[in-house]
């Protein structure tokens, strides 16, 4: 199969597995012998071009791993949020004073509360900014500096926005429980 300079290349190997890759600037394209002096279109190239396009677009390739990873990620967020909610409710049901007469402690102390307010405020600002601009910076360590846009990377964009919303809700609930315990 022929490749043009600087474009994405894709093909099927002899064993039927998918081979994709990016060629760097300056690499030469592979020229087939029949191409050297003719301008006619080879009819055998059409299936290869379709296979290359399917490989690039990942058409016909099952996405079971990606779907399972997304399912585990979102279900763990839901389970962790539910556990956080139940823990807060358990703390709120406790008596204001324990058997020794000491007041019941909140989820965080004063310094932790201020840090939670700062992190939750920044995360809320980041969510509002992402919704207004349609882009969000990557939140992971491995992709620092990468920006996901709503148009080009919708899945990654909404995943990062959802994580920030979840973080704001979790920290907000922790601050609510702490204030409720402090002022009863």
Structural commentary:
The longest helix is centred in the middle third of the chain and has 30 residues, at 64-93. The chain has helices at 45-57, 64-93, 110-133, 154-182; strands at residues 8-12, 18-22, 135-137, 147-149. It is elongated and about 80 Å long. 52% of the residues lie in helices and 9% in strands. The model is unreliable at 1-25 and 35-40 (pLDDT under 50). It is mainly alpha-helical. It folds into two domains: 8-57, no CATH class; 64-182, no CATH class. A two-stranded antiparallel sheet has the order 1-2. The chain has a two-stranded antiparallel ribbon with strand order 3-4. It contains four helices and four strands. Helix 2 packs parallel to helix 4 (154-182). A hairpin with a 5-residue loop joins strand 1 and strand 2 (18-22).
